């Protein structure tokens, strides 16, 4: 796979729920070592697109390519096997468990009938060190004692523990303060610098422009545009989100007229 080949690519994917078409011929390219911001208004189709990539909602039609080869993903285990991990807004952490057991939740390692605590702790420490995480006092802290930013860090570290190639983050800073947001954004950037492909869903346009390499905007189920972040301004992204078009960028007027019906 060349550097110019997307690690993940969607071509003309569609998804309907009954009579409602939620995704309409969506094309998307995601590259290793890059952060792709997925933006759009509520109801634009962001969650459905992410769940389609993750295998929760199989696409009705279109092509799904991974590392340049067509694949068929119909359940989350198949996406996980490729190296695709999703960190949802609720994080799915257990407050009564420590960091190590949360990172290995559902994928515990054992020696016979006994949990291999030494190996799990070592791998947890190595993963956090590889992400330059220094905000945790101990990997044996209970998650209930962690701040919002630390919880987000644990959830992201869990996602990259399994030789991940693509990490999808759903609103990772939505409930965080300024300092914690800074920590998480730095971590997002380090994921890409470590060679992973990152998809981040965010409503904060300042964060999008700061951390992303390119921006993909959904408008009423259509991909309005996917543009390098350096070529976009805050107001252009808002225009794409709210109208599907900004200047020469975005959907053709015929598509917009159809989308508005």
From TrEMBL:
Keyword Transferase in annotation:
no
Molecular functions per Gene Ontology = ATP binding; ATP hydrolysis activity
The protein's matches in Gene3D superfamilies, at most eight in alphabetical order, are given as: P-loop containing nucleotide triphosphate hydrolases (3.40.50.300)
Q: Where is the ABC transporter domain?
A: 8-245
Matching entries from SMART domains are given as: AAA
Q: Which UniProt keywords apply?
A: ATP-binding, Nucleotide-binding
**Entry protein name:** Unannotated protein
